């Protein structure tokens, strides 16, 4: 029931729509689903150290970075931000699709020169599977993007990424890994691309997981080089924001 419905229901009363809105807001709250992040002091210090130590890096340095991440993409867009109404004294719950839903996990990478490979992750991700993904896609992506032999690879601090066997793999391949401090995703510009990708794919209305994977890969390839380049060109602004927040969270 919206404000207009309430107004018609109470048509015998002299009441304006704004009054209905005000009264409704007393009983209901408009919210959005978004995970809150509370950073420990030690994490803030690490983020601040990262930002201050890299603020003076040249644009060419950031152009050499190959950014990576994994994300879950749901068939019906359930991982997108959604607004809803609930009574102020009721539990924060969100309706879910019982049948016909599902999701896929993907790994992908990009640089200022454009998007690299995207891979669907089948089954549970472990260290061995992660290394297989790297073996089959990392070097090829770096080559396609013409990053040269001295590129820098970025990954987060997931235990599978930091496992001894994985770090040995990087060493054997002579790949420099960017030391990463962040528990928050705001320092990784690929998060911006994930958000845009999910919005675009959702508009394609995939009807099953096969179509979802197809649309994800197609739309990932369609992301413009200029968009990727812009994210990297403005990366120092992220570092400045972290410094201004003393290692805390930022708008990114």
Automatic annotation (TrEMBL):
Pfam family, one: DDE_3
Recorded superkingdom: Eukaryota
Single GO MF annotation: nucleic acid binding
Domain Tc1-like transposase DDE span(s) in chain numbering: 65-211
Name of the protein this chain belongs to: Tc1-like transposase DDE domain-containing protein
Extent of the signal sequence: none
Coiled-coil ranges from the UniProt annotation: none
């Amino acid at each position: 029931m919206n404000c207009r419905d309430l107004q018609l229901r109470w048509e015998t009363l002299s009441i304006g729509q704004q009054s209905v809105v005000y009264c409704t807001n007393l009983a209901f709250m408009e919210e959005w689903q978004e995970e809150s992040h509370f950073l420990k002091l030690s994490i803030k210090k690490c983020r601040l150290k990262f930002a201050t130590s890299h603020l003076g890096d040249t644009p060419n340095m950031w152009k050499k970075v190959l950014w990576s991440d994994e994300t879950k993409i749901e068939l019906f867009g359930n991982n997108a931000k959604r607004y809803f109404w609930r009574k102020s004294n009721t539990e924060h719950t969100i309706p879910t699709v019982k049948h016909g839903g599902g999701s896929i996990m993907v790994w992908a990478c990009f640089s200022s020169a454009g998007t690299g490979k995207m891979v669907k992750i089948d089954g549970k991700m472990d260290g061995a599977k992660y290394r297989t993904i790297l073996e089959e896609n990392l070097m090829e992506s770096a080559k396609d993007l013409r990053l040269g032999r001295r590129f820098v690879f970025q990954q987060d601090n997931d235990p599978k990424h930091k496992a001894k066997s994985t770090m040995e793999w990087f060493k054997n391949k002579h790949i420099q890994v960017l030391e990463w401090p962040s528990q928050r995703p705001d320092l990784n510009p690929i998060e911006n691309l994930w958000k845009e990708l999910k919005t675009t794919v959702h508009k394609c209305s995939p009807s099953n997981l096969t179509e979802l994977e197809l649309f994800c890969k197609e739309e990932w390839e369609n992301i413009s080089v200029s968009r990727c380049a812009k994210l990297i060109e403005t990366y120092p602004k992220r570092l400045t924001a972290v410094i201004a927040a003393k290692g805390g969270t930022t708008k990114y």
